[in-house]
Amino acid sequence: MFLPFWKGWGTEMDVIFSPLVPWPALYVAAAIAALFAILAIWRGLGGWWLRAPAMAVLLLALANPSLQDEERDPLSDIVVMVVDESASQRLSDRESQTAQAVEALTTDLTSRGMELRTVTVPDGQGDAGTELMTALKDTLSEEPKSRIAGTILLTDGQLHDAQRAPTLEAPLHTLLTGRSTDWDRRLIVKNAPAFAILDEEITLTLRIEDQGAAPRDIPEQASLSIVIDGAEAQTFQVPTGEDLQLPLTLPHGGMNVLQFNVAADETELTDRNNSAVVQINGVRDRLRVLLVSGEPHAGERTWRNLLKSDSAVDLVHFTILRPPEKQDGVPVSELSLIAFPTRELFLEKVDEFDLIIFDRYKRRGILPALYFDSIRQYVEKGGAVLVAAGPDFASADSIYRSPLGDIMPAEPTARVLDQGFTPLISELGARHPVTEGLEKFAPNPTVDGIPGWGRWMRQIEVKPLQGQTVMTGIEERPLLTLDRVGEGRIALMASDQAWLWHRGFEGGGPQLELLRRLAHWMMKEPDLEEEALTAIAEGQTMSLTRRTLELEIGELEITAPDGTVTMLPLEETSPGRFTATFEGPEPGLYRLKEGDQESVVALGPAAPREFIETIASGDKLEDLVDATRGGILRLEDGIPNLRMVGEGRNAAGRGWIGLTPRNAYLTTNVTVTPLVSPWLFLLLAMVLTVGAWLREGRR
């Protein structure tokens, strides 16, 4: 316990008490002494006025008063200045406004003998935005609170961590950059699914908003362009300030990148928030497959079991059990339970199938030429047909001799080669995604270039006409040939022995994987495209893959959101795959191009968090500033003057901001001297006690 005694420049003297007994005991003794004094007065003792001081002297002696002399060095006040250097601060002339204010305030504070702690705040990691309060809290944690005279924020007021604001005991001021005439237009995607089913319509919700002091002559409609996977833009005139419902059907499976862009006005702050990127993964609900088997054979059930094992496949299968030319006297009414709907399947509803498989089928008069012509048109319009050829393909009744032959990638020579052979992946097939790395799925390792899978026992000799031969058989004759026809695709497998792999003959082979890849390639899945340019984004890093059948490619052209073009060489890491990684300097939409392949990839949002709200405003800081009696002033009105104000008083006004002097100091030396000698207390108490005794004795 101490009492201030005297203060001088650099020194302070105080009276301190260091009781010889605990304070509670001293309080009890004082209470007893007061009781005795009152009793003496009540009894009318003549020496009460001497006994009371004697007890007071004894109590004072027990309190042990001393004189404490402190030598102090005064400490300067500290002002923390937080400078916002995020992306939104680079709009318009905000950088120059900030620089001028920093220079003027630094000069003023230094001339007043104050210490300035300046901390700059860049963009937050991972599109976290402006983390002003985090920076302020971290800075204040390293400084003594008793020396903080005030805090000054130089910002546009658009911070994203207000919830982390520290507790402040000194005034907090905000100096806003920007202009009161600023305005900006932004595009908002309010609703967009991450996944969508192909051929099913989804609805996206967009909104175009004008922020700030938008000019009165700005049209109420804006030009909105929509680009899907980097294709040609579609432009529409849409109203601003209201929700827009956009119906959409995804064009393909896999990742669909949709870019929306609103035409910029030359008077708005920035066009960085005029764009939005939506990535939607297109998935197939069900794969509808029509399997047509020409006659029962060992591989028929294998095809059926493979297709039925996939829960995502809806299979329609029919087999010709009894050819029309068979004359055995069986009544027609007993040939089937129902009439097979061939017209409905091959004319009316053929477009509803995703894939049609002909397994050892030959012309028997059941399907007339009109039906085959319908299937040909189905392929040209975007359908897919797989032909698993048996001996029938080499006969006069081959379906090659139907209108379907016009789109076949190979022509039969009428030879059937009945001998064992190991299917091989061709040089082109090693680069094609359908057969690339297929040997990895073999039950046994590859030896001397021969994959470790079982042999097939028959091959139909065909003469390639067009397309790509990805697998070969006997003496490198074409075994699996793929081709694009119009908008559709067709595949010819010149053997009906694939079922041997499924049955495990000589170890079996990857029939299921081969069929899966074939189906996905024919369904135009992006992962199985032989010519493709893809990018996978992780943070600001993109992994780039150029898949091609060519042996060499050029450099990859990367166009950044700001228009900067970078040429990046690609390295072949496996047959047909050229890869590279690229670190994007900023979030946004990047355009990729190599040869005739183009793609887009979004690193972070197309409009970073910094550009969601660009109009300078102190609304988010108002409560924090008011709690410390600080102020929010605009730098466009001039750099405010600094004033010293007392603690608890209003610290801001028109054209000025206030700082609170803290008068902090550092104690360099302390000297403690007893106020009075204990013997003197004892002597004084004895004198007063003897005096009281003598006074009362004479009475």
Automatic annotation (TrEMBL):
Keywords, alphabetical: Membrane, Transmembrane, Transmembrane helix
SUPFAM superfamilies in the cross-refs: Class I glutamine amidotransferase-like
Domain of life: Bacteria
Keyword Transmembrane helix found: yes
InterPro entries named in the record: Class_I_gatase-like
Record field: transmembrane: 20-41, 48-67, 676-694
Protein name, entry field: Glutamine amidotransferase
Lineage: Bacteria, Pseudomonadati, Pseudomonadota, Alphaproteobacteria, Rhodobacterales
